[in-house]
Amino acid sequence: MNLIKTFHKWLSLLVGLQLLIWLGTGLYFNLMDHDKASGNQHRQRVESPAVDLHLLMEPKTVLREYDNTVSMSLITILSHPYYLLAHEKGLYRHFKSRYSMVNAVTGKPFSITKTIATAIALESYKGAATVASAVELTGPSDDFPKEQNSLWQVNIDDDLNTSVYVDAGSGRLIGHSNDDKRFVDFIFMLHFMDYAGEGSFNNVQVIVFAIFTLFFSLTGLIWMVELGFNGQYKPALLFGRNMAKTRKVKIFDKHSKSLGPLAMSAHENLLDSLLNHDIALPSTCGGGGTCGRCKIKVDLNIKMTSADKSQLTEQELQAGYRLACQHNSDELEQLTLVDVTEAETHELELISSEFISPYIKQLRFKAVSGETLEFRAGAFMRIFIPAAKGSSIPAYLPVELLHHWQDVIHMEYEHLACSRNYSLANGDGQSDELVFTVKIQTSPNERVKPGIGSSYICNLAPGETIEAVGPFEEFYALPSSSKPMVLIGAGSGMAPLKALIEEQLIKNSSSRELYFYFGARRQIDLIYSEHFQQLSDQYPNFHYLPVLSRPEQDWCGATGYVQDKLALNLQQLLLDKQLKDCDQVKLASNQQDVEIKSHRQIETVEFYLCGPAPMMESTIELLESHSVADSVIAFDKFE
Predict the structure, then answer these.
(1) What are the start and end residues of each CATH 2.40.30.10 domain in the chain?
(2) What would the DSSP string read from start to end of 164-190?
(3) Separate counts of helices (H) and strands (E) for the chain
(4) What's the pLDDT tens digit per position in 302-347?
(5) CATH class (in words) of the domain with range 245-337
(6) Span 485-636: which CATH code?
(7) Most exposed among 206, 324, 441, 553, judged by the fewest C-beta atoms under 10 Å?
(8) CATH code assigned to 344-472
(9) Quick check: 583 and 556 in contact, CB under 8 A?
(10) pLDDT (tens digit per residue) in 259-309
(11) How far apart are CA 565 and CA 546, in angstroms?
C-alpha cells in the first residue's frame, strides 16, 4: 500500500503540473490577438497575371522528355509561366513530393535557386524589406515542423524577425512566420504536449500522459477504498466542523467498572476528547499515531487504521485494542481504558519568549492559578493548540537572526485545533516557572505546512495564555541510584536532559558521575553552553562534552556526530566501572588486560537519550553492541 501511495503522490505532481499548463495556455488562447498569431502581419496577396496560351509549348512535347510523371500543371512564378511536373506527390501539400519544373515558353528546365526564392519571398512581403539571409533547409523547420520537403528560408530584417518559406521543389509559398507566431507555436506546443516538435496532437507524450492519468485515477481509487475500510471518512471532514455532533460514549476503566457516559465531539479524536474530561492517556507523539501508547479497547467491529496495524500486534488487534488518536466518537458506543495517567488541565501564561539559537526558543510559563506544579525532571506537558491562522516566519525575529531565516519559505496558513507534547527544561526545584525549549519546525517545501504546534506557541507574546495538561512523568532518573549517568542529546532534545542534570546537581546535590554528550551543527546551536560550563566548573562530578558536526575553523572541541564521540569513550567508560566486578584481572608487564568471564549484561552505568530519531537509533544500537542492559537505557522519543 505504501508503494501505491508513493506512486499516487508522484503521479499527482505530474498530472497536476500538466493541468496547470492546460489551464494557463487555454486562457492565453482566449485572450490572444489572433491576427498577430498568424504571423502574416507583413504578408500581401500576389496576383497571378494572365498567360497567353498561344506562346506556350504543347504539354505533350514536355511530357515526352520526362518519364514517370504523375501530374502536370501550369503555374506562375514571378509573372512567368512554368510547367510543374509531379513525379511523386503526397496526399497533402506538406507530405513528401518530387517535382521537375520547365519553362512553359522555352521548354528549358528550371529550378528554385537562392535568388529565385528570395525574389518570391520579397514579392509576398508587404512594404520595403531588407533580406538578412537565405538558407536551404533539407528537413522540417522549427516554424513549419510538418513540412517534409526541402525549403528555402528567407529571413527579413524587420521588427518581428519575419521569415518567409518557399518550397524548393515547386516554388510554392509555404507561408510567413515571425516572433509573434513563434510564441503562439510555443504555447501550442505546451498545450498539445508536442515536446518533440512533431506538429501534431497525436504524439507519444499524450499517450503516455493518458496512461499516467489512468494509473493516477486507479491508485487514488485504491487509496480511497483503503481509507474507507479503515474508517477514515468522518462527517466533519466531509461537511465541515459545524456538521460534527456531540454524542455520548460509555467509558469503562481497566477493571470494567463504568465511569459513566461522556459527551464527545465527533470532530476530535478520542485522545483529545478524553483529555477534555481530564482523562489523559499516555502519548509521546502528541496524537500522530507513531508511539503506539494511547491504547483503548473497543468492539472488534471497529475498523483498523494503518497506524493501528503498524503500532499494535496482531494479538492486540484481534483482542479489540485500537489507538485512541486514530478514532473518533462517532465510530463506537463504548470503550475501555487500558492505561490512564492522572493529570490536570492548567491555564498557563507566557512570561518570556527568547531565541537561544537561530531556530530554538526558550519559553517560560506560569500557572494562571498561581499554584506551583510539582514534577520530576524529564516530565512533559501536552499543550492544546487552538484552531488559528499561522505564519512560517516568527513574528518577533531579532535582527541578528534575520540572515538565518532568509531562505525559509514564507507561508501564511490556517490550521485546526490539535495538541502537542513538549518536555520541561527545568528540574532544579527552585522556581515555580515552567520552562520549555521548542524548536520551530520549518517547512521543507510549499506543499507542506511548517510545525503547527511549534510555530503557534513560539509566536505567542508575553501575557498570552494557553491550556496544557500534565505534567506527565514517563522519562526520569532511576530513584535511589548512585550509578554514573551518561546523557546523550541533540537539538531540542536538550530540554529533558537539562532538567535531569539540574535535578541531580542542584536539587539532589548528587555526587554520582554525570557525563553529558550533546551534539549540534555549529557553535551557535550549542544552547545553554555557558550554563553547562559553569556547572562543570562548580561540580567536579559533572562532565560537559559538546560535539559539532559542522564546526567553524576556531572550534577546538570534538567534531563529528555525538554518537560517534560516545563510541570512542564508551569502551573505557564501561571498563572502568566493571573492574570492580570482574571475576579475573590479569596484569601484563606493559599493559593491563581485563578478561571478563561473567556473561551477564552490563548494568553499571545508566544511559539517558533524547534527540532526533536517527541519533537515538544509532546510539541504542551502539549500546546493545556493548551488551548494555535495556533496564539501564531510558529514552525520550519525540516526533
Answers:
(1) 344-472
(2) EEEETTT--EEEEE-HHHHHHHHHHHH
(3) 16, 29
(4) 888 888 888 888 888 888 899 988 888 888 888 998 877 666 789 9
(5) alpha beta
(6) 3.40.50.80
(7) 553
(8) 2.40.30.10
(9) no
(10) 788 888 777 788 888 877 767 787 767 677 777 888 899 888 888 888 888
(11) 9
